[in-house]
Amino acid sequence: MPKLKTHQGTAKRFRKTKTGKIMHRTSGQDHFNTRETGKVVKNKRRDSKLSPANNRIKALIVHK
C-alpha cells in the first residue's frame, strides 16, 4: 500500500487543533465589508469550526 499524502491545497486552507477539530477562515473578507454590520465584520476576523459532517477534509490533511 502506498504512503498517505496530505493534500497541500487543503492543508493551506484548514488546520487541525489538538483535540481534532478542523478550523478554517471565514469566507467573504476581501471586499464589500462596509455594508456589513460591525458584529459581522468582527466575527469574520476569527477562524470558525468546520462541521463534523465534513469527514473528507479530515482524510485529506493526514499528516498535519
**Low-confidence regions:** none
CATH architectural designation: Irregular
In total, the number of strands is 3
Assembly state of the chains shown: single chain
Distance between termini? 20 Å
Shape: elongated
Report the structural category. alpha+beta
Percentage of residues in helical conformation: 25-40%
Total DSSP helices: 3
The tally of structural domains comes to 1
Mean pLDDT: 90
C-alpha Rg (nearest Å) = 15 Å
Architecture overview:
This protein has 64 residues and is an alpha+beta fold. The two termini are 20 Å apart. It has a single domain (8-60), classed as Factor Xa Inhibitor (Irregular). The chain has helices at 8-13, 38-44, 55-60; strands at residues 14-16, 22-25, 47-49. A three-stranded antiparallel beta sheet has the order 1-2-3. 30% of the residues lie in helices and 16% in strands. The mean pLDDT is 90. The chain has three helices and three strands, in the order αββαβα.
